[in-house]
Amino acid sequence: MTYAGDITPERAWEILTEHPGAVLVDVRTEGEWERIGIPDTSSIERPAHFIEWVDGTGTPNPAFGTQLEQALADRPADAPVVFLCRSGQRSAHAAGVATAAGIAPSYNVLDGFEGGPDAFGQRGSTGWRAVGLPWRQA
């Protein structure tokens, strides 16, 4: 089953601010959250959820589904869930798994938190941070 769609970081923020029950799930690793930063959802008074898709060694998180269901237990059934990772790859997989589990609508944020590498191999020219959405150091 496919997820609801790929959306820009700006559209993700619109969904989060316009839908009272909408939830952000960041599926990066703990190390990424600590070193690179995290989305700051304090202005919408709904915390983001942080659930690793894989750990720092690239090993899949076998508890992802269970952790996601627990994190979303209080979410209204039809409230959007927005998935975010570094560049939009892991979050696309997570949105697909969530949709298959009946968590819908689930969206993937294109370019993730910091986007893919540019011509010089550097990240950060696209994504959540680059477009100026709220974030902070963990």
Descriptive notes:
By secondary structure, this protein is an alpha/beta fold. The chain has one domain: Rhodanese-like domain (Oxidized Rhodanese, domain 1), CATH 3.40.250.10. Helix content is 26%, strand content 15%. It has 4 helices and 7 strands; from the N terminus they run E-H-E-H-E-E-H-E-H-E-E. Strands 1-6-5-2-4 form a 5-stranded parallel sheet. Strands 3-7 form a two-stranded antiparallel sheet. Strand 5, helix 4 and strand 6 form a beta-alpha-beta unit. It starts with a strand and ends with a strand. The mean pLDDT is 95.
* CATH fold call: Oxidized Rhodanese, domain 1
Please estimate the helix content: 25-40%
Write out the CATH superfamily name: Rhodanese-like domain
Structural class by SSE content: alpha/beta
**Number of extended strands:** 7
Q: End-to-end span in angstroms?
A: 33 Å
Spans of at least 5 consecutive residues whose pLDDT stays below 50 are none
Largest sheet data: 5 strands, parallel
Name of the CATH first level: Alpha Beta
The second-level CATH architecture is 3-Layer(aba) Sandwich
What is the total number of structural domains? 1
Number of distinct helices: 4
Average pLDDT reading = 95
Q: Order of strands in the sheet with the most strands? A: 1-6-5-2-4
